[in-house]
Amino acid sequence: MFLIVFPILVLLGASLQPANGQVFNPIQYGAKGDGISDDTAAVRAALAAAASNNGGEVLFDAPFAFLTGCFNVTSNVILNVKGTILASQDSSNYVQIEPLPWYGGGQDAQLSGNLEWQPVVRSYKASNITITGGGTIDGQGAPWWTCLHRGNDSEHLVGAPCNGISRPNLIMLVYTTDVTIYDITLKDSPSWTTHLAYCTNVHISHVTVLAPWDSPNTDGFDIDCCVNVLLENSFYSGGDDAIAVQSGMDYFGRTFGRTTENVIIRNMTIERSHGLSIGSEMSAGIRNVTFENISVNGSDAGVKIKSQRGRGAFVQNVTYTNIRLYNVKVAIYLTHNYHQNLPPRNATATPQFSDFNINGIYSNGAEYGWFLDGLPESYIGHVSFADITLENTSQLFEYCRYIYGSCVDVKPSCPPCL
């Protein structure tokens, strides 16, 4: 029905040649690297020295384990993690920061204006950053998950280490260009794991993200208000979306966000997750996104595009191709009703979906084959379903309404609401 073609500019890897030949090792600044002593001051000193040098390699060498609070990565820095970075579980080692303007509040209190704890690894208005080394960044997120108090609003964020403030991401790069992240393991983030926020020209490859299946909001890769992103050859198993392509929430997203566009996600292996997701925060718009050659096993969803009344904006020109799904809850999930029973809004706050090409999908053992739920005032439009096989599905349709498009070579049958 349509062809999606777009250019994408990415870094194809960076050689580990530090700026001016300088290597900054936290051990040289007083770190113990024993995984017990608080190395926050030494780690920050090493990063500050690299910043003063206009870049360099900051080496977290093996076999050391550096227990640290949050720190900032500046331009032209290679974060070379050969050993382990252990994120502190003590909020006194973190800094309270303003939330991203396109969410209007911290991660756990969006739209509220509340602050959030600074991510463990953060850049802000930087360029030419590499995170690599073959080691591990461990968020040690368990106490942060506990103080979220899911299901108990009166206790939300009460107690240490949250202390009323939204949990930190593990990595958040903000207004940053020319980013390479490869050959590293990221585990047990307090909240989102790798948050790319208003970034341009990003290449992520051979990254492993791990968290327990029931850990709250431990997304793998959040691509948020970004342009030109290639994510490939990586693995996720955790407690939320494996990938979430986003662009801000409601009025704040429409006012302060940027359209996310030119994104390719390919050659991925996904186990426990909430899916290969776009949205639901998409209020600055999302376009030109491709998911290809991905295996998903044991997740809540496979293909997943979600929004709701109040978001506004658009998701358009999206392709999912060569996706293999095993034992997922819902194989193909498209909705304008992510939070149901919201009242209709004006045209500005009503989401629009169009031009989706979903083909080459194989699913075996799904609980539901299809969840297709547009809005009477905003149909999901111009969707092409082709070469789709759903085997051993407990129930073929959970929802099927307010959508139009085409359907070719779909087994056992095409959606009746097209």
UniProtKB/TrEMBL annotation:
Signal listed as a keyword: yes
Signal sequence, renumbered to the chain: 1-21
InterPro entries in the cross-refs: GH28_Enzymes, Glyco_hydro_28, PbH1, Pectin_lyas_fold, Pectin_lyase_fold/virulence
Keyword Mitochondrion attached: no
GO molecular function, one term: polygalacturonase activity
Any Gene Ontology biological process: carbohydrate metabolic process
Residues forming coiled coils: none
Keywords: Glycosidase, Hydrolase, Signal
Entry-linked SUPFAM superfamilies: Pectin lyase-like (SSF51126)
Pfam families, per database record: Glyco_hydro_28
Family statement drawn from the similarity comment of this UniProt entry: Belongs to the glycosyl hydrolase 28 family.
Protein name: Glycoside hydrolase family 28 protein
Species: Plectus sambesii
